[in-house]
Amino acid sequence: MKIGFIGAGNMGGAILRGYLTTTNINREDVFVSEQNQEKAEQLKAELGITPAKDIAELVALCDVILLGVKPNNFETVLPLIAEKYSTDKVLVSMAAGIEMSFIEKYLGAEAKIVRIMPNTPAMVNEAMVAVCRNANVSDEEFAPVFHIFKAIGKAEEVPESLIHCVIGVSGSSPAYTYMYIDALAEAAVKNGMAKEQAIIFAAQSVLGAAKMVLETGVDPVQLRINVCSPGGATIEAVTILQQNGFEKNIAEGFQAAVEKSKMMTKN
After folding, report:
1. 85 and 33 in one domain?
2. Of the chain's two ends, which shows fewer C-beta atoms within 10 Å, N or C?
3. 168 marked as binding residue
4. What is the pLDDT of residues 174-218, one digit of tens each?
5. How confident is the model over 49-92, as pLDDT tens digits?
6. Domain count for the chain
7. Are residues 30 and 144 in the same domain?
8. pTM of this structure
């Protein structure tokens, strides 16, 4: 299988590097097309992948094409893809606000399209990736594409109708989590801890708590109850957070991201 990346910026580059470090794919079978050819050559030197001279060449050579350009560039890039696209190829889009039906207008109703919604922890191979496909992508064609994203963290197949929800719960939520870590660290600093050390304490606690949820299978509410000994320090903190609307604030932030995603959508 030959894989091509059109654009290897922050997210596309994170997926590219993560995939290369966790699989045994022949790196010469991984292609990249960049607007800046010098950047493409740098990726060749760094990663051993193959620069394509342009988008048309990459599309002609590859079985799976990952489109990592910004949403406002789709109307420019999709016609270039269409020049060499054929229905034996799968196009993967990672752009927020671009529905698969929008891409079908350029590539045709028979086009095989997968849409993903990753998040920035892809940079450390801890992504959460939502993956959806149109009706033209068979299980056999979908499996190797899905594997790309399982290689950089966790991936779940969802219907496209849930993409707005995904943006709220995982696409945008690293930002909320960074706010939480920073607030904990700042509070620790006020109590005498150095900022660098406080960040380690706060971030590792978040990482550990997340692993407890994922690896034990215990409901997060029960895990929280388990930590809260009657009359202890933890239940005192939890009570104050609840009184100040902690859960309500998170839910309202989540919904704001969902509504903005809906407003941005092109179909």
Report:
1. yes
2. C
3. no
4. 999 999 999 999 999 999 999 999 999 999 999 999 999 999 999
5. 999 999 999 999 999 999 999 999 999 999 999 999 999 999 99
6. 2
7. yes
8. 0.92
Q: Establish whether 9 is an annotated binding residue.
A: yes
> Does residue 165 sit within a domain?
no
8 is in an annotated binding site: yes
CATH number assigned to the domain comprising residue 176: 1.10.3730.10
Residue 21 has pLDDT above 90, yes or no: no
Q: Does 24 show up as a binding residue in the annotation?
A: no
Interatomic CA distance for residues 232 and 99, integer angstroms: 49
